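ok trying again, last paste got cut off:
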Amino acid sequence: MWGHGGAMGGRAIPASCSPNKSIESLLESLNQSRDRCITIDSLNIFFSIESKNVEVQSSSQLTQKKCVPCEGGVEPCTLPFVAEQLALLDGWELTEDKLKITKKWTMKNFVEALAFFNQAGEVAEADAHHPDLHLESYRNVRIEIWTHAIGGLSENDFILAAKIDGIN
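nice, full thing came through this time. structure:
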């Protein structure tokens, strides 16, 4: 029998969401609040669904934003969203594991590569969002970005990618 979480912070599930109704009816009811608790045959089930909508944005829109701290508890961006957003960021690609974005640069020499590497680090530190920076074969820079706390991609990753692209 469907019920509610009572004092534990859940909300009552409408009577229309009985075992005789479809699971879609239950999910529709649950989608109306962020934090949820349901009771099925005296078993409390707690879960949370992040309802924040992230929109695809141009590089210039992204550079106007600031990364916000992420302590987890949100879902990574969906792959369709990631594909759309990457189409607007020059040269950034999704890694094979589909959890990170990456880009490579080849500089004239070591000094130029190191300067870019350091500038990317400064940009990342200013937004408190820290990518993996790689300097390889004396002049090749590779950067991988993802949100460590969620083990995938968030809006912060695209903000940082756009800002790194703005380095001269």
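cool. The longest strand covers residues 35-40. Residues 110-126 form the longest helix (17 residues).
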